């Protein structure tokens, strides 16, 4: 069964304290792994797509990496405005998206 | 930047009533979706729609649900007889094509409260 697990469920960091969020997956025929950011009361906002192991994407303080079993979202020197829930979704060979439960990131000033 | 718009932002209804949630997808997109998210839980797929017909639906999308694209811009989700457990955020999404390099773009959702 296709499955996506995100950890930790919640992460509190001080401003400037770098860390990583994890998304581990088992899926039949990976057709892309997507990272989204979701602010309270809003829809998910697209960040990155990764297609194959070894691929990396960067946007401002965020960097996403992919292996055959997991993806990491690295956040470098975060600011309070980076506080949000970060969602990972994996697309299988049928182009179905399987979503993780998200990591709630809180950056304290 | 083009965006998906949803109305209303909040809908309160009584159990057993019909509701219609409205969405305007990004204009050049071809694939349309409805998802829901119960407070504090995962995003759940409801239905996908392409070329004026449903292409896929989940177990959640039973006979009480229907979708329609009544004109060239709107995409609606109807719940015929709402239940308490239908209370959730409902998100509309669209994408330009079905290839794996095309991300979903989401609206900001409709919060449905069934009392």
Summarize the helices and strands and which ones pair or pack.
The complex is a heterodimer of chains A (109) and B (115).
Chain A: E1 3-7, E2 10-14, E3 19-26, E4 33-38, E5 45-50, E6 56-59, E7 62-66, E8 70-75, E9 84-91, E10 97-99, E11 103-108
Parallel strand pairs in A: 2-11
Antiparallel strand pairs in A: 1-3, 3-8, 4-5, 4-9, 6-7, 7-8, 9-10, 9-11
Chain B: E1 5-7, E2 10-13, E3 19-24, E4 31-37, E5 43-50, E6 53-57, E7 65-68, E8 75-79, E9 88-95, E10 105-106, E11 110-114
Parallel strand pairs in B: 2-11
Antiparallel strand pairs in B: 1-3, 3-8, 4-5, 4-9, 5-6, 7-8, 9-10, 9-11
Q: End-to-end span of chain A in angstroms? A: 41 Å
Number of domains of chain A: 1
Assign a percent range to the helix content of chain B. Answer: under 10%
Number of helices of chain B: 0
Give a structural overview.
- The complex is a heterodimer of chains A (109) and B (115).
- Chain A is mainly beta and 109 residues long.
- Chain A contains no helices and eleven strands.
- Helices cover 0% and strands 57% of the residues of chain A.
- In chain A, strands 2, 4, 5, 9, 10 and 11 form a six-stranded mixed sheet that branches. Chain A has a five-stranded antiparallel sheet with strand order 1-3-8-7-6, with no helix packed on it.
- Chain A has one domain: Immunoglobulin-like (Sandwich), CATH 2.60.40.
- The mean pLDDT of chain A is 95.
- Chain B is an all-beta fold.
- Chain B has one domain (5-96): Immunoglobulin-like (Sandwich).
- In chain B, 0% of the residues lie in helices and 50% in strands.
- Chain B has no helices and eleven strands.
- In chain B, the strands form two sheets. In chain B, strands 2, 4, 5, 6, 9, 10 and 11 form a seven-stranded mixed sheet that branches.
- The radius of gyration of chain B is 13 Å and the shape is globular.
- The model of chain B has no long low-confidence stretch (mean pLDDT 93).
- Chains A and B meet through strand 5 and strand 9 of A and strand 5, strand 9 and strand 10 of B.
